[in-house]
Amino acid sequence: MDTIASFFSFITTPVSWVIVQFHTVYGAIFGPDTGLAWGLSIVSLVILIRICLIPLFVKQIKSTRNMQVLQPKMKAIQERYKNDKQRQSEEMMKLYKETGTNPLSSCLPILAQSPFFFALYHVLSSIASGKTIGVINQGLLDSARQAHIFGAPLAAKFTDSTAKVASLDASLTSVRIVTAIMIVLMSASQFYTQRQLMTKNVDLTVKTPYMQQQKMLMYIFPVIFMVMGVNFPVGVLVYWLTTNVWTMGQQMYVINQNPTPGSKAQDQYLQRLLKSIATHNEVRSKRRRNIVSAIVAKGPDRNDNERKFITSLSKTGLVAQADGTVIKGEALPEGESQAPKRQQPKRQPKSKRQTGGGQQTPSRASTAKPSDVTDEPSKPSLQKKDEPQDSKPRPPAKSGNGAARAKAGPRKGQQRPKHPSKK
Description:
- The protein contains 17 helices and four strands.
- α6 runs antiparallel to α11 and α9 runs antiparallel to α10.
- The longest helix has 29 residues.
């Protein structure tokens, strides 16, 4: 760890300068040699760094969501080119380029704050060794060595010996109790942050290997922090615990205000949005109007949560518009969906099917009197004459010799002779 911290020694001077500036402010309030002044200086350093990393955090969220959406396509590419690794890599890079996804974006916040973390570790290690570093002179060094947080010096570690802890004017028992509590809190906050991401902000309808990897990391990361935490000074534990708590709160805000489509968090958000719209009969903020507009624009591509939202909104007598606003409409009865049901065409009777639906006008031959028919026998015609609409099919004739049933109306034209066996 000392080798890694020495590698980032180029940033120790800026980090030590920021800590000293915050210590000047808090020292004037709580006293320059108190652990509260030095502890709050480290916490303020974390907050300043995390505020600067907010744009990277936004990119991390977008990259994580894009990776979740692309997992089925990535799996299909792996199956298709499983015997050609080079082609598989080319197709993956092509997919990332088309969708604007960067797999490394999810690691940007951690990579960006790593230099500050190791620089702070280097500063606190120098304080524990009694060496000046950066802008911390001998007077500030003596003040920092006297600062204690709940009886534990800032530069003390869980693995320090009794003699080293005694040189910092503290007891080994108090140091190990404080560091153990901080390590447990640090690991618990990391576990809860990853757990709420997996249980509330993931589309559970899509099962991908990416979800399995995230689930494994949910259990691996706390163990890693617990093992490494015993070698961190108290000041570094304050830094890491603060950044974990910040990440947890930042992620809770993002999940509540901008959840992943198809996730449990989206369902809860749309339920809150529906309650607000039903109460005020309007969408009260621009951001919410943008969300409603995006749901309306999806049309048939909406997920289950979004379809449920549109249906529930219609039941309250409101209809969502393309611009994100709502207007009053006809309320749907309970249990009825908004989409109209498809109706099957009504089956026509046999007589109408034979006469072409009864839409043609009856011909002169069909309206002629029986005497006219007998006096002037009609010539054989290849065109079938239509019957009037009010004609009814005759009942089938029953005969002992098994003759065929008579069809409705007189048959026109020449009849086919019967088979000799049926005479």
